[in-house]
Amino acid sequence: MKITVMTADEQIISLDVDPHESVENVKALLEVETRVPLQQQQLLYNGKEMRNSEKLSALGVKDEDLVMMVSGAAASSAAGNDLALNPDGSAVNPAALQQQLRQDSNMMAQLFQNDPEFAQALLGNDLNKLQDVLRERHRQRSELRRQQDEELALLHADPFDVEAQKKIEAAIRQKGIDENWAAALEHNPEAFARVVMLYVDMEVNGVPLKAFVDSGAQSTIISKSCAERCGLLRLLDQRYKGIAHGVGQSEILGRIHVASIKIGNIFYPCSFLVLDAPNMEFLFGLDMLRKHQCIIDLKDNVLRVGGGEVSVPFLQEKDIPSRFLDEERHAKQASSSGAPATTGTTDKSKTTMPSGSHSSGAANTPSNASKEADLEAKIAKLVELGFKREAAIQALKFFDGNEEQAAAYLFGG
């Protein structure tokens, strides 16, 4: 495993060591690197002294952990060193630790690659956030250590102990899940991205709508409020009242037997159920998809109608009203009204778009003054790290104002 040793004179040393190596042997390696005699070295881990006879694994030292080294006269005051860590993983003096790590370009470059959240906390001015990140990393290390201890205990458990065998089975299953998750992150990262549902622009009785295209819904559905807005509620046949069952349930108010919908430049006859479903406006279901020989073409990202005589593009996320994408609102409305299965799957991903926004425009664009102030703040942070102002400006332009990427580029250069 690799550990990082920070010396009192701000030198950063990376060592490849065995987890079961003794502290004394680690000091011997450091003697070669630093020319500081073994007897004058004192190593600190999480603010506590590491004794020569102790093993790294017994002290809880893990891969990529940080160890402090003091020597000479500084050894007597090592416990109160500003760079030490508290038992909960937070820094005794977070400002001193932040300044120390900021000054090491190699360390910062490694952090940007391996732990960008920690690197960003070091670059920022919020010491409380830095302390929170340090505590979280300590908690993660402690949890990993606990899991490893449990695995070790299971390896030495009585093979005839039924409970122990159940735990071993659960551990093996969880390991398989974790490996599958890691493989997905590496080879199929898009699987973790939110999938935006399929919407197209349509007109119903002359009223423009954003229609949700769902081949998993048996019937085409319009909400009562939408039908009223389109002037179709007068055609509602209440003889078709009922209940739509599925993941939940919703009241079917009736049926509108025929009305014109406009897709592209062509009008088509359409019939739909009217539901009391406040979280859904208009859903183009399988019945009309079949009737009008529609093709959902995901390669070209279009809906083809009439066997291809009309093609309309699926809307981008920015063009879909935020109320259709708001997970919390959909969840609350579905639970209160009982959304039917015929409405298909609901997009369960959150959006940060403001309510009622359709596409980005001048109203949503920050003023030039605020842009310049934001750019100057980023430049100032990079200059504070020791880079020239011109280089900072060029890096920010190159990475479209992304401060993290610009810093990583400058550190790497």
Automatic annotation (TrEMBL):
<dbReference type="GO" id="GO:0006508">
    <property type="term" value="P:proteolysis"/>
</dbReference>
<keyword id="KW-0064">Aspartyl protease</keyword>
<dbReference type="GO" id="GO:0015031">
    <property type="term" value="P:protein transport"/>
</dbReference>
<feature type="domain" description="Ubiquitin-like">
    <location>
        <begin position="1"/>
        <end position="70"/>
    </location>
</feature>
<dbReference type="Pfam" id="PF09668">
    <property type="entry name" value="Asp_protease"/>
</dbReference>
<protein>
    <recommendedName>
        <fullName>DNA damage-inducible protein 1</fullName>
    </recommendedName>
</protein>
<comment type="similarity">
    <text>Belongs to the DDI1 family.</text>
</comment>
<feature type="domain" description="UBA">
    <location>
        <begin position="372"/>
        <end position="413"/>
    </location>
</feature>
<keyword id="KW-0653">Protein transport</keyword>
<dbReference type="InterPro" id="IPR019103">
    <property type="entry name" value="Peptidase_aspartic_DDI1-type"/>
</dbReference>
<dbReference type="InterPro" id="IPR021109">
    <property type="entry name" value="Peptidase_aspartic_dom_sf"/>
</dbReference>
<dbReference type="InterPro" id="IPR033882">
    <property type="entry name" value="DDI1_N"/>
</dbReference>
<dbReference type="GO" id="GO:0005737">
    <property type="term" value="C:cytoplasm"/>
</dbReference>
<dbReference type="GO" id="GO:0031593">
    <property type="term" value="F:polyubiquitin modification-dependent protein binding"/>
</dbReference>
<feature type="region of interest" description="Disordered">
    <location>
        <begin position="328"/>
        <end position="370"/>
    </location>
</feature>
<feature type="compositionally biased region" description="Low complexity">
    <location>
        <begin position="334"/>
        <end position="346"/>
    </location>
</feature>
<dbReference type="InterPro" id="IPR029071">
    <property type="entry name" value="Ubiquitin-like_domsf"/>
</dbReference>
<dbReference type="Pfam" id="PF00240">
    <property type="entry name" value="ubiquitin"/>
</dbReference>
<dbReference type="Pfam" id="PF00627">
    <property type="entry name" value="UBA"/>
</dbReference>
<dbReference type="InterPro" id="IPR000626">
    <property type="entry name" value="Ubiquitin-like_dom"/>
</dbReference>
<feature type="compositionally biased region" description="Polar residues">
    <location>
        <begin position="353"/>
        <end position="370"/>
    </location>
</feature>
<keyword id="KW-0813">Transport</keyword>
<dbReference type="InterPro" id="IPR009060">
    <property type="entry name" value="UBA-like_sf"/>
</dbReference>
<dbReference type="Pfam" id="PF24669">
    <property type="entry name" value="Ddi2_HDD"/>
</dbReference>
<dbReference type="GO" id="GO:0004190">
    <property type="term" value="F:aspartic-type endopeptidase activity"/>
</dbReference>
<dbReference type="InterPro" id="IPR015940">
    <property type="entry name" value="UBA"/>
</dbReference>
<dbReference type="InterPro" id="IPR057273">
    <property type="entry name" value="Ddi1/2_HDD"/>
</dbReference>
<keyword id="KW-0378">Hydrolase</keyword>
<keyword id="KW-0645">Protease</keyword>
<keyword id="KW-0963">Cytoplasm</keyword>
